[in-house]
Amino acid sequence: MGQSHEKVAEGALVSRRSRLLGAKSQLFYDEPVHLVRGKGVWLYDADGRKYLDAYNNVAHVGHCHPHVVEALCRQASLLNTHTRYLHTAILDYVERLTATFDASLSTAILTCTGSEANDIALRMAQAATGRMGVIATDATYHGNTTAVSQLSTRMPPVGGRARNVRLVPAPDSFRHPDAMANGKAFGDAVREAIASLEQDGIGLSGIILCPLLANEGFPTLPNGFFDDAMCAVREAGGLVIADEVQPGFGRTGSHFWGHQRAGFVPDIVTMGKPMGNGHPVAAVVTSSDILATFRNAFRYFNTFGGNPVSCAVANAVLDVIEQENLLANAHDVGAYALGLLRPLADRHECIGEVRGAGLFFGAELVRARKTREPAPDIADEVANRMRHRGVLMGKTGIHGNVLKIRPPMPFSRANADFLIGVLDDVLGEVGGVSA
Prior knowledge:
- With 435 residues, the protein is α/β, with parallel strands linked by helices.
- Helix content is 39%, strand content 16%.
- It has 14 helices and 15 strands.
- The chain has a seven-stranded mixed β-sheet, with helices on both faces.
- α8 (258-262) links the parallel β8 (239-243) and β9 (268-271).
């Protein structure tokens, strides 16, 4: 009776949502979860059931962290205004934030979303170079503005892709391991894109990429993989933009930023969701020269970007990362979780490759390891069954078949034990067990 009542209530809520927000307003899972509360790595639905959050990098330091909530409330009770008045919160935060980067990256613009940050980054590159061409991979995602949505292949732009955009093949460590060896194949593809832009009289402004290639399925990248591509871009006078929305703020465990782990220094860095632990704050970090050029070319102003409340929240997030040693935790628990996940490939034929770094890990699912045929339907089924077993996770990748496990940074070894145990059971149910 309770379950029937739950489905009726859920159906009514979905119907109301479709009427008010549009029929294609996206929801996770075949049976959506009605969440009402969060704490740490746990989320709770309207019926009091709890779920291990193994998806949410938005609540980077844990849902409703008391130190972050207190900082938000305290500042909201004092002052909240825009940055055309003087206030110290934005200056204190930018100084602290840029101290985590190479010395060349010393200035910032604060925004509300990663989409805004990436939009500004593209304009910075165009202002600095005087050219319009931009390169990205063909399986990426950098946001929702008109400019950055041109880079996504999931939903092709109405009217066709802009002439100044070139998309290069995303690296695939499972199907094309030889091409991963030294990054030359990727570098060659970037050179080809640069030549195409030159031939069309557009020229290169820069390349934008996630240093972890998260949406591409976070393939296993050898050290220095991006070096050849970076050289090609810089030889052509272009800039390198690192989108750190997913690998940033210690997510990979070994470094504070994904580009540091990948071994290159970008010209522009963007960041978003994890920065405010769910509060809408994002940023673009760059050199003083590039920022000055941008300021001269565009009269950019953001009413809410860098407001005192957002800065207090973002500063509190940095406090928690430091005080709770979350970078070290990501390194330790991530390695531990991968150690639990790898043996599953011996038992489940549907696991093609296990991969990840820190608290961003998962596995590519296939119909058979020998054929390497992607199995996005199995990935869907796994995510839905995990949801019913109390674990929230997602999928990503070139073929939509890579299980994505990306929990809040306080995720523990005990949490990993629980998650991998449930995943082992679910894979046995949906993917079969190898002999």
